[in-house]
Amino acid sequence: MKNTSQDVRPLHVKEIFRADIQKLPDMVLFLEETLSSMGLSPTEIFDLQLAADEIFTNIASYAYGAEGGSVSIEVIRDATTVIITFTDSGMPFNPENLPPPDIGLDLSDRKIGGLGIYLARQLTDRLTYRRDDGKNILTIKKAISQPE
Amino acid sequence: MLEIETGMEEDIGIIRPSGRLDAASFTLLDAAFERLIGEGLRIIILDAGELLYTSSSGLRVLLSAQKRLKQTGGELRIAALRPEIDAVFTMTGLTSVFTIRESVSEALSG
Asked: What residues of A are in contact with residue B91 (Cβ under 8 Å)?
């Protein structure tokens, strides 16, 4: 979906997904289409997709028990930034409490995991978390270049 | 979507993933490593030329394969990384953990 200048760009899109790894491809496709229709560059889309992938994967893996649940994803674009908010009603999970991985370690000392949220932080300008009314609300924000 | 081809060149295994490597697909790549390492191969090249995307789920598979191969005195060599994925390797400090080569033919010679 390429934009032309006559296109009306959606600036606010929200979608709800089952918090399930099997839904990851749908979530990625949703973001790709949404961000592309909002006029972002391929690199910006790649970075935001990857950050969102890591967050969605975390929620799908840890937020809910066997009964499962959902996650809502809201994308807002203004003139200079894109903000993506993930809301789930699962167990409290504050990524701000995670220790950053030591990426300078030798192979033998390196842990296999712990890179996901770190990557999400690296790929965006800000990652914030709050717990509100029994919900985890995680937001990523990235400055974007102006489309032509 | 991820598709995986495997092959051999002399006694070096080659794994060629194409598509997206993420939490929904990483088990396919993991199984390919499992099989080749199980067959006794000590050097494996990941031909990443058609790998369009990887999340940390994919990086975990590669780290874990490298650990296993190093224990046998072998290694995982990664060839033909696309720039976006190369950036992810740099961001996570993985460029020093793997032997990274421009092409499969370079990776074959060490």
From this structure: 119, 122-123
